[in-house]
Amino acid sequence: SAPGRFADYFVICGLDTETGLEPDELSGENFEQTPLRRTFKSKVLARYPENVEWNPFDQDAVGMLCMPKGLAFKTQADCREPQFHSFIITREDGSRTFGFSLTFFEEVTSKQICSAMQTLYHMHNAEYDILHSPPSNDKESCSTTGDCNGTSVSKLQRFNSYDISRDTLYVSKCICLITPMSFMKACKKVLEQLHQAVTSPQPPPLPLESYIYNILYEVPLPPAGRSLKFSGVYGPIICQRPSTSELPLFDFPVKEVFELLGVENVVQLFTCALLEFQILLYSQ
User: Fold this and answer.
1) Smallest Cα–Cα separation from 75: which of 105, 52, 113?
2) In order of start, what are the domains of the chain with their CATH numbers?
3) What predicted TM-score, i.e. pTM, was given to this entire model?
4) Is the pLDDT of residue 125 over 90?
5) Which of 3, 53, 57, 1 lies closest to 218, judged by CA?
């Protein structure tokens, strides 16, 4: 039986430099996109512990749900703000486990990966030149008007492009907690503080491994109807578990539902739920 720990696994997903850049077919690969706008396969790079008997680790599911759009590459010109999301894994017996992921960007230090991205751009630009080159009888008019496809191609090549000699390449990476209950706010704070510790010029008070060990082995699940306060890297983290007489745990801000769907759609959804209609939410 489960010992009632706050978290079962700490997981890291990202770029496997040994296998290199593999197209992510599941995310709908489009080779017409520039290489920086394509998606590549992400992999589970590490997890701790290796396995727990009450919650077997599903590497394929966790890897896909941690980074559902695969790896993303950016340069110094792009926005690289961290993004947080959650997911649920439902097993065949109906039991659930919850995942919380913080995706951020870090500099690519592998020269092989940088060279591979540069090669992809050379191939992409060459293919684009062939597909969009003007007919031979239009060359004279192009040169006189200065408005031929060659000019637009050169502009396109500079837009969303990558030059290994001048650009810094960044790739997405994900840290994740797998937990038995959906304490979203607490998990988000844990991951954000861990990320802050990694990116801060000053080292954290204790080694990062000690904080991860603490969250996995020393922080218990709060009893029903009680709250729990434990230490993060930079400050306390609090979570509360409802009692059996209260509504089930729902640790997500309702505000986001209204921001994403709008008031009219939320009212329509609520009406459909009361009328017991089947509801399907479709999203990218």
Assistant:
1) 105
2) 9-111+164-221 (3.30.450)
3) 0.81
4) no
5) 3
